[in-house]
Each structure stands twice: as structure tokens, then as C-alpha cells.
Amino acid sequence: MGQIKNYRWIIVVLLFSATTINYLDRQIIGLLKPILEKEFVWTETDFARIVMAFTAAYALGLLVFGWLIDKIGTKAGYSFTIIFWSIAGMLHAVARSAFGFGLARIGLGLGEAGNYPAAVKTVAEWFPKKERALATGLFNAGTSIGVVVALILVPWILTSYGWQEVFWITGALGFVWLIFWLLLYDIPAKQKRLTAEELHHITSGQDQDENEAEKQPIKWIKLFTFPQTWAYITGKGLIDPIYWFFLFWLPSYFASTFNLDLKKPSLELMLIYTATTVGSIGGGYLSSWLIKRGWPTLKARKAVLLAFACLELSVITIQFADGVWAAVGLISFAVALHQAWATNVFTLPSDLFPKQAVSSVVGIGGMAGAVGGILFPILIGNLLDNYKAAGNIQAGYNIIFTICGFTYLVAWTIIHLLTRTPKVVELDELR
Questions:
Q1: Tell me, what's the pLDDT at 217?
Q2: Which of 161, 356, 369, 377 could serve as 236's disulfide partner, Cβ 3.0–4.6 Å?
Q3: Distance of CA 194 to the CA centre of its chain
């Protein structure tokens, strides 16, 4: 194959596809929840524990894979992680109890944790700073497309086969992606399909220390001494659990509140998760646009984060929705705002750290988000079980939506205080 113009966007397509498969695989358990809880007699607390098993493994996996991908590189690291999670996804089909599903979710969580450290590091390698938020927004749109694909694919497989085949078929998709990754990916300096002009465009928009050819080791533990690391930990630790809630409990929320039949493709849920694509791409575009207009990088990121945090207060009004489509509209707006927020938070490691440390920082922050994802389901499971027993599960959901609405502003305030001095960590400081 000869040289190709704008090859970096082909790389984004690969990242988008992997992220789509990643979220397709993790979303299946939420869509199958009404079926599996009847077959295996789960309570809301049982399901919460299954979710917690995934998020606990995800937390550990983020820490390990963040370090590993910085160590062995994006090509090998991404290959390993997708093989790991695809096998774990397929093994759900042999589970026969809540404990068995918990074990399968642990494997899936460990493997899927490598996706974001690898993807964000790839963006740092392939894009100048002014384009990173847009590139991140584009691949991060795979989170919502993966869920939409699940909403279409899962009911079809269920109707044609059964729930076991859902896991076998979707788990195999990762191996299809792996073929294209191995054929098409390499770092810019080694990629023969890349034109000289595009290589110059990429490297000229990166910091000098990012372009050093020689791999320079960093002291991983030193990352915890920088407020920039704690700012990212805050952005992930407080907000990621909210998306876990949107991901795993929204199908059940609509089934219990509006009698939605999850055995059929759901237009309502498709619209909600499609809205996250708009937020992901739009949020990345907005901060990139401000940077191109001359705004300092960190100022642009924090400005759009504040705007999205204020708008996210609208999620509190979901409790006043008087019909399914009013709820769809409000939740669609809320999840779009979340993805717009998440896209800009994801760029912070590549904005504030040399690329040799990006995967490690992403892994540390992702671990914090997963820890929050372990704790938040405990609250959700207890609330929903108690209110379900009282015959008013809707009240439990209303409390959860209110908590979600205020958390973004709290997170932004802490991030702002930790990054009042817009200093970029130098590579020499990490040795």
C-alpha cells in the first residue's frame, strides 16, 4: 500500500471501532438484566455486586494496563487487551449463577481496562495538541455507538438464538478488529503509509520532549506528587460512576418506569445513547475551536467543562417528566453533556504530561473512576431495593438523578483549584 493523505484519521477509525466493541461487550449485561434476573433469581443487590465485580477488576486493570502500555507500546498493548476482553466476554455464555457472571465480569473488566490508556496514548502519538480533543471526541463516540449496536444486535440474537449466543457472537468481534489493527497500525515515525507532510504536521504540533525518539523511562510513583494528576483523578473518580449508572441501569429504569420491552429493539434507548455521540464529538470540537482561536489549552478545556457542569444540573428535572418521551429528551441531554465533559477530561493527560506518561496517568485516573464505580452501585442497589420494597422505585431513581446533577460542579471546582497554575509536567521531573 502506498502513502495515504490524512492517515491519522484512519487511526481514529480504528480507535473508534475498538471503543465501540468495548462498550458493546460491557453493555450486554444491562440489556439482558431483566431476562437473567428471572432465570437466575437475582435481586437488585445481586446485580449491583455483579457490576461491582466488573468495576473492581476494571480499576485494577486500568492501573496495570496503563503502566504496561507505556512499557510495551500501543500496538502490542492494544492487541493484548482486546484479546483478553474478547475471550472474557465469550465466557459469560457458560456462567450459570450470579457468582459465575461475577467471575466473567472480572475477566471482562480486567481486559477492557486497557482500551482507554491505549487509545489516549495513540492520540498523543498521532495528533498535535490542537486536534487531540476532536480526535478523542471521535473515538469516544464509540461508547455510545457500541450501546446503540447492542440495542439492535442483542434483541436480534435473542430472538434467533438465545442469551448465550449473544455473548459468543459479540465476543468474537474483537478478533475481527485485531486483524485490521495489526495490518494498519504503527507509530508515526515507523508508518510507511504516512506522507512527509502529515508527519511534519503531527510532530510540529507536539511538545519537544514528545518527539524524542529514544524511549525514556519514568518513575511511575512520582506521578502522584503532581496536582495535575489529582485533577485528572478527580475528573474521573467523581464523574465516571455516573456514566456507569447511565450504562447499566437506564434499561432497567425504562423497563420498570415505562414498561419498556427490552426483548425488542428500543427506539427510546437508541435515541438516548445516540445523543452521547453528539456530545462526545461536539464537546471535543468546542475546546479545539477555542484553542485554534488563540485560547490557552487548559483555559479552553476548563471553560467548556464549567459550561457543561452547569448545564448538567438539568438532569435533576427528570423526576418531573410526565411521559416516556419527556424522560428520553431530558436523559438524552444529560448523557450528551456527560460525554462532552468526558471527552475534555480525557485530553487532560496529553495536555499536561509528556506522552511517555500519558497511559500511566490515564490508567491512574481510570482506576479512580472505577473505584467510584464500585462504591456508587452499593448506594444504587440499596436505594432501589428499599424503594422497590416500599412500592415506589421511582423515588429511588429521583434521588440518584439529583446526586448526579450536582456532582459535575463539585468535580469542576476541585479540578480548577488543582490547576490554577497551568503548568505542563516536564519529562525530566518524572525521572
A1: 66
A2: 369
A3: 29
Query: CA–CA separation, 100 vs 393, rounded Å?
Result: 28
pLDDT digits (tens, 9 = 90+) for 343-390: 899 889 888 888 778 878 888 888 888 788 778 878 887 888 888 888
Nearest to 61 by CA among 16, 106, 1: 106
Phi, psi of 194 (to 5 degrees): -85, 130
Instruction: Work out whether the CA dihedral 273, 275, 277, 280 comes out positive or negative.
Output: negative
Check: CB of residue 146 under 8 Å from CB of residue 27.
Answer: yes
Diameter of the chain measured on Cα atoms: 67
* Interatomic CA distance for residues 136 and 149, integer angstroms: 20
Q: What is the dihedral of CA 73, 78, 276, 149, to 10 degrees?
A: 170
Residues 6 or more apart in contact with residue 106 via CB below 8 angstroms: 53, 54, 56, 57
Backbone angles phi, psi at 113, to 5 degrees: -60, -25
Count Cα atoms within 13 angstroms, Cβ side, for 368: 18
Query: What is the spatial distance between Cα 388 and Cα 390, in angstroms, rounded to a whole number?
Result: 5
- Could you say which of 2.60.120.10, 1.10.630.10, 1.20.1250.20, 3.40.630.10 is the CATH number of the domain covering 222-426? 1.20.1250.20
Q: How far is CA 350 from CA 50, 123, 131, 206, 354, in A?
A: 33, 8, 11, 10, 7
Q: Do domains 7-206 and 222-426 have the same CATH topology?
A: yes
In whole angstroms, give the CA distance from residue 352 to residue 405. Answer: 27
Tell me the per-residue pLDDT of 269-326, one tens digit each, with 9 for 90 and over. Answer: 888 888 888 888 888 889 889 988 889 989 999 999 999 999 999 999 988 888 889 9
CATH architecture of the domain with residue range 7-206: Up-down Bundle (1.20)
- Residue type present at position 144: S
Whole-angstrom distance, CA of residue 238 vs CA of residue 223: 20
The amino acid at 356:
Q
